[in-house]
Amino acid sequence: MRFLFRSCVALLTMMLFALAAWGGEASRPVRIGVLAWQGLEEAEIRWSSLMSELQDRLPGRSLALRHFDLAGMAAALRAGELDFVVTNPGHYVFLEAESGVSRIATLMADASTDPAHVVGSAVVVLDERRDIAALADLKGRTLAAVSPDAFGGYQVVWAELRRLGLDPEQGQPRPVFTDFPMSKVVEAVLNGDADAGVLRACLLESLEQEGALRPGQLRVLSPRAEVQRCRVSSRLYPGWAFAAARDTPPALSRDVLVALLSLSPDAAGQSWSVPADYHPVHELLQELQIGPYAFLRETAWQSLWERYWAWACGVVLMLLAWGAYTLHVEHLVQRRTRELTQVMDARQRLEAQVREGRQQMDHLSRLSILGELSGTLAHELNQPLAAIGNYARSLLRRQDSGTLAPAALRQAAEEIASESERAAGILGGIRAFARKRNRVREAHDPAALVRDASRLFEGMLPGVVEVKFRADAEAAGMSVWVDPLQIQQVLLNLFKNAWDAQQAAGSDVPIEVSLTRSGDRCIVAVRDHGPGLPPDLLARLFEAFFTTKPDGLGLGLSICKTIVEAHGGEIDAIVAEPGPGLVFRFTLPLIDAAAAVAREIS
Length: 602
Hints:
Number of helices: 16
Helix content: 40-55%
Distance between the termini: 107 Å
Structural class: alpha/beta
Strand order of the largest sheet: 2-1-3-10-4-11
Radius of gyration: 43 Å
């Protein structure tokens, strides 16, 4: 019984001590420190609404808000005077390494903003300073900033300048630190004490809205096009961190986090989110070798020598040995060079002989091309010359019959002139090809080109069938970048082949021509009602000198293929469905696609 009584007394004593400790902990206010980057008055206005809403969501607890600069907040954490801190991402990473704080929430600019892309910097200059148009123009200038430890007020821009080959630590540009609040940076730029200044993202817009600055008075250098919320000169980093001190109870941290996440956006649209990834901030500080990465700047040459002197001596000996070996190899190389001189001379003589043989081969190749061009010229000139002869004979017949009207005479004369110009154009094209010059191309309506070619074909040969043209609604308004003479040659060749095929089959059905659109290309299809061709012959239609006509040269379709492909298109032949007959189709890129093809060719 005595033992049981003593146990109950001890248990009751422990419970009383626990209740007393809990009561003391609950009665102590929750101490929250915030970074006053715009001064104490501005910080009181900025964070008082947050404290009020947190107080409403944390019943039974009292909140104590304190404002610090960068050094003061770090000192308060070291003294154990704070439970939570609210600071910029760069300062948070520093406090995380020094004092062991841990983030529990990240500030978002608005509900649609990624919490990992919030904080940035804007480098501003007076709008009339047209000699400073971009960040690269700051070389040799002065740059105002609040502090070398300010993340959005200096370090972010410092990193951007280093990526451009500038380094403020080397005086390019020369930094001028004004200390907090950040409005001093604006004053320095306006007063001419600095050429440019670093402002936290969106501060310029806030000052303009408040009337502290005239809109357009300051201009942002190198604004980022991907950032729409406000004008910034740098990439964006995670938002401000709400972090718990090392000794803050986890239960208190959880209660504060739940309260933060339940807060509605403030008047500026800012709200709190789950902690973002601050790895980009670590990378920036590591790149600048500051904060927790300042140790990278330290170069202890004496310590390194004491630790690695033996290795250093070994490296020096190896370098000396390598130098001696290099001198020996250089001597051998010079001797071998003298021995190889005669071999090189013989090789040069052989190369000269090879070049002479290549010149002879090029001459033979040109002779072969001239022979092919002669056949092409004879084939292509046959059509305009035949048309000129037909129109001339038609004039003679009408003159003999007394039915030659002035209008008919004028029309025939115009057609003869047109065909002669076409023949001259063919000769010019052959000459241009021989001289390796490109033809001049123009924008044309493919439907107009088809109609002109069909009219020329119907007026060129007596007794030909009608060319029936059909265009889809999507084909209206199309434009192609072509040489009209060459496309007319292609169409006339296809019309003539279709007419020859229908004559062989005894068909007087009109030749069908269709114009359609497929993506960025137009498709011209010529269909005949002839006997068709078997698959083995169909596959060889576009080979040079292959023909199914007794008196054909086999150059027409080969030339058509060359012309179409030179315009960036394709040509093929398929069996008509339903038969009989064949369908010859060729494509031409529309005006935008033709420009792209021309760029690729050039």
